Amino acid sequence: MPEGPEIWRTADSLTKALKDRPIEDLYFAFDELKDYEAKLKGQSVENVEARGKALLTFFDNNNVMYSHNQLYGKWMVSDADKEPDTNRSLRVAIHNGDKSAYLYSASEIEMLNREEVDQHSYIKKLGPDVLHPDTTYEDILVQFKSEKFKNRKLTTLLLDQGFVSGIGNYLRSEIMFYAKVNPEKKLREYTGEEKEALAEATYKLTTRSYETGGITNDQKIVEALKRENASYSDYRHFVYKRTDDRCHKCGSIIEEDKTGGRKIYFCPNCQLQD
Q: I want to staple 128 with a disulfide (CB 3.0 to 4.6 A). Which of 106, 136, 139, 141 is the partner?
């Protein structure tokens, strides 16, 4: 499933294609949304924003479309009326004179009024989103210092969208590595300095992944590996999916473990040494 940086990049792509252009035609696959085809025709999209792993499409008539891709949903943008060649099931299509945006295979699509957005059952439970313009490092640090989460194990907490929204499996492993913390502890067991390191890693690596199109590794390491003709999969991340490869920082062998049915990746030298 795409994580926060990928969802925000999708939002940017949709905003660029749809913003301030009158809608010439729409299509909704679900019967309960069919009435909005006429209601939204002639309106414009103001912008598209991410909320956790969901997207909000704001129209200029007070309507907002909520969509969540889950595992299989995908937005695609093309030149006007040139539908992508795919076997996916079309759920939504928005056409203006220049571009078309297609949502395929998503199962959660709703129309809301703006005043309903913050009370949506998914959105109201979300923690701060690093990539939202209003979120600061201090907002993320508050979460790591919160009494509410102190008894939660870090490996499961980082995937809880009510803690910090937008984090998924690759960011989880990368954040724990960058902060140089033992993944197996509960939040209360980390020192104040470690919590600050975790907040910094969360903020820095999520932003870095958004800006680079998915790369969390340090730029200097990336450039050095590129000069050695390393593959994208080898230089993209510090530890994620690099089991049995050498750590980019210390040269030790990357290991993996499974928690809650999902793998985590870590460097025993960088993270498990007292």
A: 139
